[in-house]
Amino acid sequence: MDPLDNVVGGSPLCAANDLERELLRRISAGDRDAFRDLYVRYHRRLARFLARLTRSREDAEEIINDTLWIVWQRAGDFRNASRVSTWIMGIAYRRALKLIRRAVTHARAMTLEISDAEQSVSDAVEATASRQLLERGLATLPLEQRLVLEFTYYLDHSCEEIAEIMECPVNTVKSRMFQARRKLRMVLGEDAACGAGGRRER
Amino acid sequence: MSVELEGVVCDSEAARLLPWFVTGSLSAADGERVSRHLEGCEVCRGDATHERALRAMLKDDGPIEYAPQAGLAKTLARIDELTREAPPAPAGVAGDDAGPPARRKLTATRWLAAAVIVQAIGLGLLGGSLLGRPATDRARYETLSSPVPAANGARIRAVFARPMTVGDLQTLLASHRLQIVAGPSAAGVFTLGAIGATPDRDGLDALLASVRSDPLVLFAEPASGETAQR
User: What is the ipTM of this complex?
Assistant: First the structure.
């Protein structure tokens, strides 16, 4: 994981954003090295997020390439009104929605099935099994709720940033998150969600 | 595994902010508000533990392999192709699907202009020789790229989302009253022509807006020589 990703409210996050703003500035001047740096920097977080969203590595790669291609074209229009990551995630989100709206991919994203091969591997390792369980739990959530969870916990975006990315009111983000947590808790149960020793007493 | 169907019990506003308290992305005021709430709410303290565990699991990338090089090479090739083919876009273009910025150097423009002149001369000579041939020697078929009906129409360069079926393409062209004039290039760029009367500036703007709003259109801009209100 990028060490800068997980630090919030302090200078490292600001430093990461400053670095990315500088990369965008260079990209807007046609600097391909800066584009390479930004591409590699965003590929990982976009790949995991989009692969989960689309349940297709190919679709995820297509969206990543489209997103960063748009970043190449639009870098000069970034106005520092938000974090660079919020801007880029907004582009990826809109591209993903366009793709998901095509019926075949949408059906694939919504399926709850996992292959026998995946299942047998997951059964062999507890950590992997927990992950599979989580994936299955996430798959039961409506798309918008799943996105809010991913934006919050995987990508560390604030509630306001998610509202900007998803182009909806802040209260809608809060409601989606609340519903997602409740449904996920119901599907997974506390033991599964918290892992070993995570059960709380009431 | 046991399954408890208890859900989230506390439905206070502070409880709704708990996920962002866990990630540390709340404002100072909201963070303080949630902290005060946690002091007196055992349910939310437990929920905070749960949410931290959930976040840790979501953060765990697991066995996914990341190989950005292939995609990077593909995207750079796409940029190269567009840089060679697309004209400079006017400044102030809005939206994700707008055209590329003007990045070509003056020397490249000159070479391109020279190449176009040479090509035009060549095409003129070729056209003259073809017109001089008997009618029976001419081809009696049309292709998707036949430019006949839109010879004088506005031109648009566009890139479509992939994968796209022939049926999708035909539907898209028909819905916008467009036809393929040239392409696709190696980068997947199509040159499209408007069918029927040549649209004026406002008409071209409307056509572009309509094309760009199509979910199957990744990119659309006026072709060289066309103007559009941005």
Answer: 0.71
